[in-house]
Amino acid sequence: MNEQERRTLGEETIKRVYAGDVIVPPEGYLFTDVMLNQLFADQWNRDATSMRDKRILLLGMIAALGETMTFKIQAKAAIKNGEISGDELRELHLFIAQYCGYPRAASMLAPMEEAIAEAAKDLEGGEHETD
Question: How do the domains of the chain map onto residue ranges?
Answer without folding.
Answer: 3-45, 51-124
